[in-house]
Input
Amino acid sequence: MDSVISLIQAAVVFGTVIMFGCIGEIMSEKAGNLNLGVPGIMYIGAIASLASVFMYESHVAEPNKAVCVIIALVSCFAASALAGLIYSFLTITLRANQNVTGLTLTIFGSGIANFFGGSLNKMAGGVGQISVANTSEAFRARIPGLSSLGAFGKIFFSYGFMVYVAIILAILVNYFLKRTRKGLNLRAVGENPATADAAGVNVTKYKYFATVIGAGISGLGGVYYVMDYIKGTWANDGTIEKLGWLAVALVIFATWKSVNAIWGAYLFGILYWAYFYIPNLTRASQELFKMIPYVVTIIVLLFVSLRKKKENQAPAHLGLSYFREER
Amino acid sequence: MSKAAAVREPFIRITKRDKMPIWKKIIIYVVAIILALAVSALFIFFVTKLNPIDVYKTMWQGAFGGITDTVKKLHRSVTIRDICTLLLLGVALAPAFKMKFWNCGAEGQMLMGGVATAFMMINLADAGLPNWLLLVIMCVSAVIFGAVWGLIPAIFKAVWNTNETLFTLMMNYVAIQITSFCVAKWENPYGSNSVGIINQATQVGWFPTWFGQKYVLNIIIAIIATVAMFIYLKKTKQGYEIAVVGESKNTAKYAGISVKKVIIRTMIISGAVCGLAGFVGVAGVDHTISTSTAGGRGFTAIIVAWLAKFNTFFMVAITLLIIFLNRGASEIASKFALNEYASNIITGIILFFILGCEFFITYKMNFRKSAKEA
Output
């Protein structure tokens, strides 16, 4: 029983990182931009929040926890959105290839993050010495009382606030895309920009907003990763990149619906950590177990393309740039 | 007010260009790279307070030069070695991309080739085969494994139109886990979590050293692949079919080309050459296998193939630029005590600029005539 609970806890914490990445990517893909820069954006968001909080905590005698959290979130969102803006400018205004631009953004983001992360570690006096204890504590604070309600409390209330923010955000984004006029326009831009353009929708504006805000949301996965998942440190081990690609995979798994991303993310978490809880696995077979999330994604991808159900497909204009004068 | 503004001609109107002379293109690229280097220089200066000129000089030395002759030689041969591997991957992606099949799976295809190579290297070490025969066996198995890894997404794309970008991306991670699995199985010494240098004492299955150079065979393979792919894409019927499918699937269908067949055949070739790169990487460079055997080069190759517009000879130049940046950056890292991720930043900035500058090659900006003329 205990191991089941701890598996669920690990899955939720893991799932939250990729859920943020996934929600942001859904926004962007719904507007027709396949942003393969998600890992890079998460990297940038993570390092921006860590660096700014580190500066704040080391310059102020008694850091205020609320201020810490605000600084972390704002700097993360701003930096990630800026990365999204670079991507948007290149792919939307300059019509560069989306795959290539996204991959470049991932290279660039991992460079920025690991470069400054390495310097931060050095400034702090070694790997694992970065101290943003206040912020990390604030991010990991549980609701008092509720988390001690036995197994129930452990499963539902033993997490920091970002876990719930992710769920709310998934629901909000789903509502926005499905039920509002702006959301409808945004989806139209992703499905058929020429038609949307003819109907008077400003394609460029929608694409920009969707991608930039989407990037900001994806970046929050990075802040959750550094502050909660690894408790306010930095390691140049490339984990964020791995998680970023899983976030991209999750978009497919969720068939471009952000509410599906909620349970999808936790399921990915369970699949990812399952090997840890299955007794008597050799190290070699553990590695095979870690393959499962990717294989499941491939199966979902196949299933979606086999069934050809319209509402489960990728946006029709995904990955293509729009040029009004072409045909 | 808004109506009047709407009727007025927009300030910039963008139209497609027909064609641009090659010298103009080169000027645009050069300007872009210079701008990118200037931006990177600003970045270097503001973050590290180092003189950017010194930094670039050090990069040059890291890639091509050195204080002593031995260091110089070492630097150059490592640079050439890295170019060969990346070039092979770029060449591998060229046919797929020309067909507008976004093969993002070079990483996985190369790893599978590497796994097959390492498997043969380990298991046939004591078989007493002549080295050339062993190399041929390794090469063939690597090519087959790479081809299969490329074939799987191609079949689904051809038959059910499954999104290949996402499929090939996922196949990378499956390949990485298979590699980790094999590393755990073959680890040597036990508990080290790495395969170690395979056949270190006997050098069985290693590329031979010719003319005192370790990487002659790497170079030969890379050159043959580059030339062969160029001819295949430009001069053969199959290459033409790839171009037609890439331009328009409907046109291809009307012309009687079997689109499915072309997709599957092309991806077998693409995967096979990636597998070949895995063979070169394991037998000719690392002599071991790990998840970093491909080391992100599968992704970098996508950029190489795209920027070279699928022309394998342009790829040589672009590969040269990227490897120069990587090698140079690791030199700065050691000399100025920065960390080597600086190279990713500079590479990123340069690629952003090159990607951006292509807009000015494809499109023309027509500015609104000034108010006086109107």
